[in-house]
Amino acid sequence: MGHCYGPQQDRGVYRTIDGGKTWERVLFVDENTGASDIAMDPNNSRNIIAGMWPFKIRTWQRTSGGMQGGLFLSGDGGTTWKKLTGNGLPKPPTGKIGFAYAPNKLNCIYALIETPQDDFSGVLWRSENGGETWSLISIDQRYTQRAHYYTRMAVTPDDEDEVYFLANGFFKSLDGGKTVTILPRSSSPGGDNHDMWIDPLIPDRMLVANDGSVAISTNRGKTWHMPKLPVAQMYHVAVDNQIPYFVYGNRQDGPSRRGPSNSKSQSITLSMWHSVGGGESGFTYPDPVDNNIIWSGNMHQIVTTYNLRTGQSRDVTVWPDYSLGWGPAKLKYRWNWTVPLAISPHDHNKVYVGSQFVHMTTNGGYSWEVISPDLTTNDKSRQVDSGGLTIDNCGVDFGCTLFAISESSLEEGQIWAGSNDGQVHVTRSECCIRI
């Protein structure tokens, strides 16, 4: 795919014939189109199918899909390719594409294809002749949900009709994708599932990789074991002023966490860490005067306070609109995925958060006031729906939002604010100065 943040000549499909010592590009569409998936026929390694995906990411929008994408087939191990059109396939434009061969049935291929939301033509196609002709199997958008984020599936090696679809949920089909069963959380590998491996010799053994961890099944998905791995994605880190101090951070796919920097035993165990409200995308700060009060942000502009004395978390979000599904131009306040949060070093009762404005509370978040004008460019062309062919307004790419807030530790009232569209402002009294 390349880095996806602009035109890139390195996109395409590459092949090695010397075990990875050297590589050659064997399929290139254009500088805006990369390979979203590639699959090799398990019964004939010369048959390869690739999905080419026009995709561009900006800080304010992602655009999936285009006229140049589609399905490409090779019958000579990738030396030559032909683009597949017609014969049951959807008309362009197309977006992200995923594939799966059925190992036990010759020439059986599944294809998940992102098609335009305003002219929807389907989700799942199947070919019984190696990709020459295709049949539409399903229009159920749950198979891909957020198409650019998921679009993966797997077929069991011993049954061409047993298909698994990986998305926010986990779906199983026993009739080739015509219908699916939504597996409940109690008997599924978890959420945000991205890839799956099924043992080709013992199909009851399965592995699923998701945002949270890895899930293992040895009974064909009836039950799953999810080992606790010593890994995490942390957004930000902070410490308090105790001795020894505690460490705070925002953890992906979970609440914010607090743990000691030291312990009386030989190690810092998992049991010493605990949740302190908030969530994955944001900042977490203990009150510098009362470390028992912890401020934390989360996605979709959520702000919480956590009281260590009571073990309770309180939602103190500035404005009660939930931004998921909305474009930024339709919202009263535009919030960055990692909402900026700051506590005044001069008055711990003053807490700031940022939308396109700086908001301040002096009463623990029971009320908020706007203390600045719009500190972004307010460019309406960068406050648009995101996603491209499939709208995906989940808040990760809102344009014209504040990205950082900080008050000077030397001068009370000197507050700096930076936006994700390149603006830097500072206030030293009642007015803001653009830098």
Sheet/helix structural class: mainly beta
Summarize the amount of helix as a percent range.
Answer: under 10%
Main beta sheet, described?
Answer: 6 strands, mixed
According to CATH, the homologous superfamily of the domain at 13-217 is YVTN repeat-like/Quinoprotein amine dehydrogenase
Blueprint of the fold:
Blueprint: E1 13-15, E2 24-27, E3 33-40, E4 48-57, E5 62-64, E6 70-74, E7 82-84, E8 97-101, E9 109-113, E10 124-127, E11 135-138, E12 152-155, E13 163-166, E14 170-173, E15 181-182, E16 193-198, E17 206-210, E18 214-217, E19 234-239, E20 246-251, E21 257-260, E22 274-275, E23 284-286, E24 293-297, E25 303-307, E26 312-315, E27 341-343, E28 351-354, E29 358-361, E30 369-370, E31 387-388, E32 402-407, E33 415-419, E34 424-427, E35 432-434
Parallel strand pairs: 5-31
Antiparallel strand pairs: 1-2, 3-4, 4-5, 4-6, 6-7, 8-9, 9-10, 10-11, 12-13, 13-14, 14-15, 16-17, 17-18, 19-20, 20-21, 21-22, 23-24, 24-25, 25-26, 27-28, 28-29, 29-30, 32-33, 33-34, 34-35
What is the compact description of this entry?
The protein has 435 residues and is mainly beta.
